[in-house]
């Protein structure tokens, strides 16, 4: 009599697309970079977050619009610099 394996076989392990490149990768504790496929994809994704490349679009509220108008007024009043 054989005993069942404690780990699921590779055919039954859950696979998810890598958030960075889309490659299907095993989502388990055996994958140290999960949900990414590799250390490279994990590092690239982290770099994008650190450089604020990922942004959530939002509609400006009244305070945002007022701040933008004030900034435009200040830049219009500032003397032009020659390059």
Automatic annotation (TrEMBL):
<dbReference type="GO" id="GO:0006355">
    <property type="term" value="P:regulation of DNA-templated transcription"/>
</dbReference>
<keyword id="KW-0862">Zinc</keyword>
<comment type="function">
    <text>Inhibits all the catalytic activities of DNA gyrase by preventing its interaction with DNA. Acts by binding directly to the C-terminal domain of GyrB, which probably disrupts DNA binding by the gyrase.</text>
</comment>
<dbReference type="GO" id="GO:0008657">
    <property type="term" value="F:DNA topoisomerase type II (double strand cut, ATP-hydrolyzing) inhibitor activity"/>
</dbReference>
<dbReference type="GO" id="GO:0008270">
    <property type="term" value="F:zinc ion binding"/>
</dbReference>
<comment type="similarity">
    <text>Belongs to the DNA gyrase inhibitor YacG family.</text>
</comment>
<feature type="binding site">
    <location>
        <position position="21"/>
    </location>
    <ligand>
        <name>Zn(2+)</name>
    </ligand>
</feature>
<feature type="binding site">
    <location>
        <position position="41"/>
    </location>
    <ligand>
        <name>Zn(2+)</name>
    </ligand>
</feature>
<keyword id="KW-0479">Metal-binding</keyword>
<dbReference type="Pfam" id="PF03884">
    <property type="entry name" value="YacG"/>
</dbReference>
<comment type="subunit">
    <text>Interacts with GyrB.</text>
</comment>
<protein>
    <recommendedName>
        <fullName>DNA gyrase inhibitor YacG</fullName>
    </recommendedName>
</protein>
<dbReference type="InterPro" id="IPR005584">
    <property type="entry name" value="DNA_gyrase_inhibitor_YacG"/>
</dbReference>
<dbReference type="InterPro" id="IPR013088">
    <property type="entry name" value="Znf_NHR/GATA"/>
</dbReference>
<feature type="binding site">
    <location>
        <position position="37"/>
    </location>
    <ligand>
        <name>Zn(2+)</name>
    </ligand>
</feature>
<feature type="binding site">
    <location>
        <position position="18"/>
    </location>
    <ligand>
        <name>Zn(2+)</name>
    </ligand>
</feature>
């Amino acid at each position: 009599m054989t005993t069942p394996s404690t780990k699921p076989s590779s055919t039954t392990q859950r696979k998810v697309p890598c958030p960075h490149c889309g490659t299907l990768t095993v989502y388990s504790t055996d994958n140290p970079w999960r949900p990414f496929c590799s250390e490279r994809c994990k590092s690239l994704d982290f770099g994008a977050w650190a450089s604020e490349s990922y942004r959530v679009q939002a509609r400006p509220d009244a305070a945002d619009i007022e701040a933008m108008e004030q900034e435009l007024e200040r830049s219009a009043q500032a003397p032009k610099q020659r390059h």
